Amino acid sequence: MNYYVTALALRLASANALTKSAYWTLSKMKGGPRSVWHDRGTWLLANLPEGPSRILELGTGWVHAYSLYQILVRDDEVHCFDVMDRRNFKSFAATIPVVCEQIQQMPLAPGLLERVRQRTAIIARCKDFDEVYARLNITFQISEDGIPHYPENHFDAITSIDVLEHVETSLFRAAAEGWYKIMRPGGRFLAQVGIADHISVYDGNRQPKRYLTHSHRTWDLLLNNDVQYCNRMTTSEMISILKDVGFEMDQVDIELCDISRAEVHADYQWQSDEDIRAVRADIRAHK
Ligand SMILES: C[S@@+](CC[C@H](N)C(=O)[O-])C[C@H]1O[C@@H](n2cnc3c(N)ncnc32)[C@H](O)[C@@H]1O
Question: Rounded to the nearest whole angstrom, what is the distance from the C-alpha of residue 262 to the centroid of ligand 1?
């Protein structure tokens, strides 16, 4: 779909509380499997602490997509957090076999594969999320203020996939302070962030950083929307805040796209070349 048509549609959906609620209700209704990117799941598994751990997934969305890897493969205490309830059990149940099949492609020990199958079967017998949570040691918390409320020094790891770019800019520092507080010393912070323009996805990703070609004013007046909010923060801004609140960076891998500075609007010219070209950032940090 055309970039501007999509932007307009999302803007109309953001018109008022009623249209937003209708949009979210409709987007929640999809009953089939949700896309889960196997490389993102394996990245998490490769970077989580060894042995059973207490893990928090931020922004778990419709099907707790990336907690599924830990739930099926590892013996963790899994906690899921979001700012609103987007969950759909039918979609969750339909996504489990997809993730199970993906995991079976991994070089896992036969005992572990059997465990994945057993856990998949347990979930298949559950009738709702509460039953899954009770059977598999999972909790789910919603907090509209965007800050997870758990005891201090509680988690061995905090993970998020495609979430940090959706945290409201004005809230980002307070949220980061919250993440730091509930992480135990030495705990790992693992975040994959989609820095690309999310509206471009509907336009075949022809210009993955298209918002940079428009002024802030055009963004605010025409392109921005609430129902698929994106903060447009740069990787450097996010990392700077994460460091400010106390996190130490272990590794940041950045995927770049081709966009020339000549295409970038004056409002964004202060950004470094790397920030302008960044479309994805994989952040590994610790407390
Ligand atoms: C693009 S979805 C990704 C969902 C899921 N991680 C996935 O990949 O399927 C972004 C998610 O971030 C959540 N989110 C927005 N602000 C947040 C915040 N401050 N803390 C945690 N999650 C937040 C949204 O509610 C939404 O579920």
Answer: 33
Question: How many domains does the chain divide into?
Answer: 1
This model's pTM is above 0.85: yes
Residue 200 domain-assigned? Answer: no
What are the start-end ranges of the E strands in 24-135? Answer: 54-58, 77-82
Domain CATH code at residue 279: 3.40.50.150
pLDDT digits (tens, 9 = 90+) for 244-275: 999 999 999 999 999 999 999 999 999 999 99
Is any atom of ligand 1 closer than 6 Å to the C-beta of 167? yes
162 C-beta closer than 6 A to ligand 1? yes
Query: Could you identify the residue written with the tokens 């070209």?
Result: 277
The two beta strands, 54-58 and 77-82, are parallel
Q: Does any domain span residue 54?
A: yes
| β pairing state of 278-286 and 54-58 | unpaired
Tokens of 242: 């994460």
pLDDT tens by residue, 134-180: 999 999 999 999 999 999 999 999 999 999 999 999 999 999 999 99
Q: Whose CA is nearest to atom 21 of ligand 1?
A: 59
Residue 22 placed within a domain: no
* 176 within domain boundaries: yes
- Domain coverage including residue 116: 31-195+234-286
147-to-71, 96, 140 alpha-carbon distances in Å: 23, 28, 14
* Any ligand 1 atom below 6 A from CB of 166: yes
Would the CB of 57 count as within 6 Å of ligand 1? no
